[in-house]
């Protein structure tokens, strides 16, 4: 039986590329949302939050998927992090594998600034009560380094459970070595959802 796989890097670090790689290899993968048996969809982050509040296993209501990615959610009203629940996921689903998808953090934060033409930045700033983009940039970079440090420290004694994959530099053959039973091939890996290079103009209220 294949293990569950949790992609625990931030968005704009190849989460869509990973999701589609697993789909090409014939696996059921849930990316940001999960399709339930009745055909309806639930946001992964919301479902995890609700399950945790009820004392249920985090994947309750999201059965059937083998891989979970893009497990965070940020709107103007709330910010939920599924990737921060890696310890709970590890405890509740023993033997699972975790992928920390990463890249140069400065490239990452710039990509987040451009995501949805600046819409993602505006939502996150509104939710966090931050009016200065420079403060938001520093906040995101601090989250980045804290999360990466926490993940690598937690799995330090179990390197076989974690793959740290740099989407800008690493060879996709590493996936096949890390998950030998998944039938992954280098050709399954392709870059998707690249953010356009142009930096959007911010609304005056956000520009500070």
Oligomer: single chain
Number of helices, where a helix is a run of at least 4 consecutive DSSP H or I residues: 8
Distance between the termini: 53 Å
SSE pattern:
EHEEEHEEEHEHHHEHH
What's the total count of β strands?
9
Q: What strand order characterises the main sheet?
A: 2-5-1-8-9
Helix content: 25-40%
Question: What characteristic shape results from the CA principal axes?
Answer: globular
Chain-averaged pLDDT: 90
Radius of gyration: 17 Å
| Class by alpha and beta content | alpha/beta
> Which residue ranges are poorly predicted, with pLDDT under 50 across at least 5 consecutive positions?
197-208
Write the layout of secondary structure elements.
Elements: E1 5-7, H1 15-24, E2 29-31, E3 33-35, E4 41-43, H2 44-53, E5 67-69, E6 72-74, E7 79-81, H3 86-92, E8 97-102, H4 105-114, H5 119-128, H6 133-154, E9 162-166, H7 173-178, H8 204-207
Parallel strand pairs: 1-5, 1-8, 2-5, 8-9
Antiparallel strand pairs: 3-4, 6-7
Helix pairs in contact: 4-6
């Amino acid at each position: 039986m294949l293990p569950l796989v949790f992609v625990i890097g931030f968005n704009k670090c190849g989460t869509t590329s990973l999701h589609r790689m697993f789909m090409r290899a014939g696996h059921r993968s849930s990316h940001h949302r999960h399709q339930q048996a009745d055909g309806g969809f639930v946001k992964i982050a919301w479902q995890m939050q609700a399950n945790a509040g009820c004392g249920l296993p985090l994947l309750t209501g999201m059965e059937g998927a083998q891989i979970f990615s893009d497990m965070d959610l940020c709107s103007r009203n709330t910010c939920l992090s599924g990737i921060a629940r890696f310890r709970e996921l590890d405890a509740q689903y023993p033997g699972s594998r975790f992928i920390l998808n990463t890249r140069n953090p400065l490239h990452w934060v710039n990509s987040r600034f451009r995501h949805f033409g600046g819409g993602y930045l505006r939502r996150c700033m509104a939710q966090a009560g931050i009016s200065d983009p420079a403060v938001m940039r520093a906040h995101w970079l601090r989250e980045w380094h804290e999360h990466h440090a926490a993940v690598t420290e937690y799995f330090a004694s179990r390197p076989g459970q974690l793959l740290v994959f740099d989407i800008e530099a690493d060879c996709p053959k590493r996936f096949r070595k890390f998950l030998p039973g998944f039938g992954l091939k280098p050709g399954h890996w392709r870059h998707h959802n690249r953010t356009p290079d142009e930096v959007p103009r911010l609304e005056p209220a956000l520009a500070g």
